[in-house]
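Materials and Methods. Structural model of Translocon-associated protein subunit beta. The 139-residue sequence of Translocon-associated protein subunit beta from Sesamum calycinum was retrieved and submitted for structure prediction as follows.
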Amino acid sequence: MCFCVFRTAYDVTLNDDSWSQDVFDIVSGNTSVSWERLDAGTVLSHSFELEAKTRTVFYGAPAVITFRVPTKAALQEAYSTPILPLDVLADRPPEKKFDWRLLAKYGSLVSVISIVVLFVYLVSTPSKSSASKASKKKR
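The predicted structure was written out as C-alpha cells:
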C-alpha cells in the first residue's frame, strides 16, 4: 500500500485488518502500522505477506488511515482504494478457447461450400462490361 501526504500529519495510523484469519495467515509484516509524524510530500509504502488457507473469493475492505492535522483538532480518517475481489486458490471455470477439433472436422466442408457459393455468385452476377454492352444494343 502506498500513499502520499500533502501536509504535515501527526499520529498517523494505517489499519488494514480486513484479511480474515479464517482465510489467511500472516506470513510476515503487520496489517497495522503507525507513525508519529509525516511531513508534507512524504511518500510511504507498507506491505505484508499473506498465505491463503482455503479456496474462496475474497472481498476485502479498504484500509483505514487515521491522522491529525494542525489546523483541525479532530482525528481525520481516510480510506485506501478498495481492492477487487480476489479468487484465492479458486477453481476457475475453463475459458472457452478456439476448438481446433471443429476446424479439423468441418473445415474442408466449409471450404467446399464457400467455393460453390462463390462460383454461383460469379456466374449469376453479370459483369459490368456485359451490362454496358447490353444497354448499347437496346439503343
